[in-house]
Design a protein that fits this description.
The protein is built from 3 helices and no strands. The protein is mainly α. The relative contact order is 0.11.
Length: about 80
């Protein structure tokens, strides 16, 4: 029984490491992406929208959407 418990602990540690390496901190990334998106929108108001700014905004929105989906899966 002791060996089985040790194997489970080892497996748990490996799964946590895999999760951290594969997905990172979903909540922190989401917060950072929201701040970036807010900065982009402030810049757009100040200087107007450029094609490059629109592209960056859309990429940021896509990444934020992906993180939100991962967060939803996490809570399920």
């Amino acid at each position: 029984m002791y060996r089985f418990q040790q194997r489970l602990k080892t497996l748990k540690r490996k799964i946590k490491d895999w999760n951290r390496n594969e997905f990172g901190n979903i909540f922190e990334d989401k917060k950072i992406l929201e701040e970036i998106l807010q900065d982009i929108q402030v810049q757009a108001i100040s200087h107007g929208y450029s094609i490059d700014l629109q592209k960056i905004e859309q990429e940021t929105k896509d990444r934020l959407n992906q993180r939100e989906q991962q967060e939803e899966t996490f809570w399920k």
